[in-house]
């Protein structure tokens, strides 16, 4: 076994700590009372030993002076706490980084989001069951993700540009298959306004901008939500432990929303998109920030880089599955890098390293804002396809069913005739 990391790759010695050993490498710092009084009470001993294992707020850890007396931590501002620059010994931060210990013990935000998404998915199944008689759409076509129909997903808040703005080639008079339609071609048609739901458009143009957000909480079926929640409860949960809930929440939703904005610009407008994949990719991006910022503290960083690259390629490949949008993945990854660089607590052992990190942070903040403003404006005021006609192939495999990724990718009926 490699003593520097062992089989588990934790990056620290595998020797067992012994609080009573004379070997400094095997013992915690002994209180002065051990040397002065061999009859120290067991209660007192347990308290001293327990302190080394108590999981505290790592940005406010209380170091010990040489004589074993506690040193009161200095007052730390909220900004320092957010960026991980509060009172906390550098050596201890490095050791905790190698052990995978972060700012907090429990990923409360990840747990809350997972519960909310499971609840929303149950509601999706109920809605489809009421409409078609079965929670999983089997007619007119089988949902490959084993979930509700396309119309039900749009009605519940999927990112679907025709519900959000006027789309060239998709008239407001367009009719689509109703939620309860099971025929192919559809014999029960509903207006676009009825399918979009949420009270319709109130005699105005489609304006359901909130779909950039609601789509994050929806999933296309059992396969989709199981894969996403596994990733969320593992990778995303660890990032929350390391970043803290506040920084994680900002990163998660910035990545998820921006992924939907990017997809709204360049994906086929007739293909609804849903899922937390963009937000999860944003948290995956933070692991890349961690890898390069803490390269010398990582266990076998080159091997880790190879595995992370393979995982990233597989994740992008999954973006070609129906109802999943690769632009959401790529947009979430991009915004996760920018926001993660800004908010992730990086260990800076030297002034040069600290200056480099602050340089990246100061560049990332305005770039993230500019990307949001430009792409949201582009979504509502121009035709993104005109600027990048080939971009759609990043999230679409050309087939006869989608007109080889041309047009809107939507089969429409208006006035009873096919368009």
UniProtKB/TrEMBL annotation:
| InterPro entries assigned | Peptidase_S54_rhomboid-like, Peptidase_S54_rhomboid_dom, Rhomboid-like_sf
Q: What does the record give under GO molecular function?
A: serine-type endopeptidase activity
Annotated membrane topology is: Multi-pass membrane protein
Keywords attached to this entry? Hydrolase, Membrane, Protease, Serine protease, Transmembrane, Transmembrane helix
Q: What is its EC number?
A: 3.4.21.105
User: Which BP terms from GO are recorded?
Assistant: proteolysis
Query: Which residue ranges does UniProt annotate as crossing the membrane?
Result: 108-127, 209-231, 243-262, 274-293, 305-321, 327-347, 359-380
Q: Please state where this protein is localized.
A: Membrane
The segment(s) forming the Peptidase S54 rhomboid domain are 207-344
Give a single Pfam family match. Rhomboid
Does the UniProt entry include the keyword Magnesium? Answer: no
* Reactions catalysed, as given in the entry: Cleaves type-1 transmembrane domains using a catalytic dyad composed of serine and histidine that are contributed by different transmembrane domains
Q: Region Disordered: what ranges? A: 1-31
Where it mainly occurs, coarsely classed, is membrane
GO-annotated cellular components: membrane
Any idea what job this protein has? Serine protease involved in intramembrane proteolysis.
Q: Which family does it belong to?
A: Belongs to the peptidase S54 family.
Q: What is this protein called?
A: Rhomboid-type serine protease
**Species assigned in the record:** Serpula lacrymans var. lacrymans (strain S7.3) (Dry rot fungus)
């Amino acid at each position: 076994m490699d003593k520097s990391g062992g089989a588990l790759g934790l990056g620290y010695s595998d020797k067992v700590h012994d609080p009573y050993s004379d070997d400094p490498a095997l013992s915690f710092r002994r209180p002065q009372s051990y040397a002065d009084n061999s009859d120290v009470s067991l209660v007192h001993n347990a308290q001293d030993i327990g302190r080394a294992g108590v999981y505290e707020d790592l940005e406010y850890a209380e170091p010990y002076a040489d004589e074993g007396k506690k040193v009161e931590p200095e007052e730390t501002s909220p900004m320092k706490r957010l960026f991980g620059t509060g009172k906390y010994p550098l050596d201890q931060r490095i050791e905790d980084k190698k052990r995978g210990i972060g700012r907090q013990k429990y990923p409360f935000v990840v747990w809350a989001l997972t519960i909310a998404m499971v609840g929303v998915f149950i509601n999706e199944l109920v809605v489809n069951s009421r409409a078609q008689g079965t929670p999983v759409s089997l007619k007119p076509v089988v949902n490959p993700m084993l979930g509700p129909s396309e119309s039900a997903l749009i009605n519940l808040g999927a990112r679907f540009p025709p519900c959000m703005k006027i789309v060239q080639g998709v008239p407001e008079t367009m009719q689509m298959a109703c939620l309860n339609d099971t025929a192919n071609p559809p014999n029960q048609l509903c207006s676009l306004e009825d399918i979009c739901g949420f009270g319709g458009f109130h005699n105005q143009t489609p304006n359901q901008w909130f779909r950039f957000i609601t789509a994050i909480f929806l999933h296309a079926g059992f396969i989709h939500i199981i894969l996403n929640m596994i990733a969320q409860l593992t990778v995303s949960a660890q990032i929350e432990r390391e970043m803290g809930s506040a920084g994680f929440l900002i990163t998660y939703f910035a990545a998820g929303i921006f992924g939907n904005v990017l997809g709204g610009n360049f994906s086929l407008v007739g293909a609804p998109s849903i899922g937390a994949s963009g937000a999860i990719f944003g948290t995956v991006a933070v692991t890349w920030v961690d890898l390069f910022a803490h390269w010398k503290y990582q266990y076998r960083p080159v091997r880790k880089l190879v595995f992370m690259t393979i995982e990233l390629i597989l994740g992008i490949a999954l973006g070609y599955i129906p109802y999943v949008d690769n632009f959401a993945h790529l947009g979430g990854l991009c915004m996760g890098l920018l926001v993660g660089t800004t908010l992730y607590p990086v260990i800076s052992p030297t002034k040069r390293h600290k200056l480099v990190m602050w340089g990246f942070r100061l560049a990332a903040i305005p770039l993230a804002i500019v990307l949001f403003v430009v792409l949201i404006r582009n979504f509502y005021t121009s035709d993104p396809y005109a600027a990048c006609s080939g971009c759609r192939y990043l999230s679409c495999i050309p087939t006869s069913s989608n007109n080889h990724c041309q047009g809107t990718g939507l089969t429409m009926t208006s006035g009873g005739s096919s368009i």
